[in-house]
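Marked as duplicate of an earlier ticket. Keeping the data here for the record.
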Amino acid sequence: MKIERRLLIVAAAILFVYAIILCLSPAGRERTWEVEFRWTHWIGLAIWAGIIVLFHWQLRKKLPDTDPFLFPLTAFLAGLGILSIWRLVPAFGMRQAIWFAVGGITLAIGVRLSPKLSFLRRYKYLLLIGGILLTSLTLIFGTNPLGSGPRLWLGCCGIYLQPSEPLKLLLVVYLSAYLADHLPFRQRFFPLILPTMLLTGLALLILIVQRDLGTASIFIFLYTVILYLATGRKRVILASIAGLILAGVVGYYIVEIIQIRLEIWFNPWSDPSGSGYQTIQSLMAIANGGIPGRGPGMGYPGLVPVAISDFIFSAIAEETGLIGTGMLLCILAVIIARGLRTALRAPDNFRRLLSAGLTSYLGAQSILIISGNMRLLPLTGVTLPFVSYGGSSLLTSLIALLLLLLIGSQPEEDPAPLQKPVPFLNLAFLFGAFLLVLFVVNSWWSIWRADDLLTRSDNPRRSISDLYVARGNLIDRSYSLINETQGETGSYIRKYLYPALGAITGYTNSIYGQSGLELSLDPYLRGLRGNPERLIWWERLLYGTPPPGLTMRLSLDLSLQMKADELLSDQIGAAILMNAKTGEILAMASHPTFDPNNLSETGEILTNNPEAPLVNRAAQGLYPPGSALSIFVRASELDSGKSLDYKDLVNLYNSLGFYTAPDIRLPVAQASPYGTVENLRISPLQMALAVAALANDGIRPPGQIAMAVNTSQQGWIILPPLSEAVEVLTPASVVKTIITEMIEKQPYWRNLSTASVKTTSIVWFMGGTPPGWQGTPLVAVVALENGSLESADKIGQELIRSAIEP
């Protein structure tokens, strides 16, 4: 009993620390001590501690020689479950604590039963048939405490019982007693198992009619395991596997719920906000936990539907991480090992099969629900023994524990002879291997796939985190605010101070995700890049969130940007003004545009608008260039001294960057496939970078829009371009080409052209300062949909003049 007492003390200490952290978690989330602390969960912990002391005292008196590991480990799981449920829904946490008290009192009374358990063996038929009849009553009087879903409960006065839970134990008792009674006398296999097939089949039929597919799966597994352990015949396993596969295939085409569950399992991403929502949110919770976890009370497990029951493993994973769930899997492994040890040391075949069956019930149900949480197996809707919310499940698990303790309480009795130990060894290996696989898969989601899951725009944890951690600001080249975070911790909101830039700077929204610069610069704005790794690690460990975001300085000039938006206001198209030498974008306009401040109210209208105001036409719009490329062809022909053939055109277009998406910190459209000439489509940004070569001695610059980041330790850090400058044309050919395009009495040149695709005509304006310009070399590109040459010419020229003569 010393081992048991010490383990109980360790369990109580861990849960005590867990409860303290849970109590202080509001201060960590709000980052202030002026909060309302959690405290009601201490009631649940006090109830747990009282029952533990009571039952330990009874065990010491009545069963001093029983297994010293089973009770402390299962008690810890029950305590963890109470605190986890209380953290999510305090009312249900109180109910779980009361059910644990009922179960604990039942255990205290049950230890007085005879360890021989002969009454179970004697009344095996009566017990199983009674359980089947009770379960069948749910077909008539069944209800659901949640108001909708399968009616699997019998209830009255707010108290509900799920008969299928104790039915699992009754099946194990029946099979163990029947096989122990008949195996020594019957050698023919089929006559031996026929009665068991009839009764088990009847129970399965009721469960299938109820659509309780999880419990039905457990029934098939338990039937297979006990029959295999009793007979040692591998054909039992093969037949069960074949039957499950056949049932799955037939059920997929006949039973709608099986089809839905399998489709969710195969590809939950096909409907992330519908049928796949539970699975995806479960995986995101596991990923959000990472290795150390967010800390008790610091995660967002409530985002996973039914987190207190079906997905409580995901809730624990988010707040305790791989460390906590790894410990949970180890505890399950020890419970299974000790249960099978009890079976091997049992004094007779009945108690041996009963111990193995009870252990298999606890192990299989745990593995099944955890696998569903990790998408290793389809969702089944069963509970995690001792941990998940549910009085029926908790009471059933505690009774299984009681029976194991009773069976292992007489070590002085010699174990019954075991002619075939291999089936028991195979079962132990199966459970061990599966638990190891669960740990590996858990590591896969929480480590290797974590970044992919957590950076998805539909991850609601990002939006919630934005309420508590200030997102970095966006400013223009003169340090004027464009987008900023306003408010206080817990109520931060994103404000877009110049809404006309909505299509370019984009948005970060809890409903519609992210776009534009808010998306491409998110790691900096969220504080995950640019901050020291130790700071990021410490903030995640302490608060479960990244550190405050960093301010980003853009190359945009708000005065020029306003001019561009004013000129483009009544048009559909895009305009870009660029420093031809550095590739810095001074103005980028896309119209029609939208106001990100009102996105939650207007998002659906904007999404269905045929004019696509959410699209940044300057970087994501693809247009036919038409005759606009003739100016590049002329310059290239001057270089080569000959007319360009198809191969020459491909090489020219490739050097101009028309076959590669611009490498810039901004979402851009995918480029046309290499070698495309006739059906070439390019974005205004691609065109602007190519035109910049005509004002920069034939050198195409790299594009730049995010210039610098303001770090907490080093101040402003310049961000280098993501690509290198490329020489496209010779200075001589550029000069000869541009001379013919110069506007009389103006210090700039321009070129106008048209193109068309289906029913839409495109007007291009390209212009800029001439080679050798003493000031900042500039280029402007305008693309109008169904616009006029006069409008494009006016917009382009005024945009250049406003930059040359501010």
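See parent ticket for discussion. The mean pLDDT is 89.
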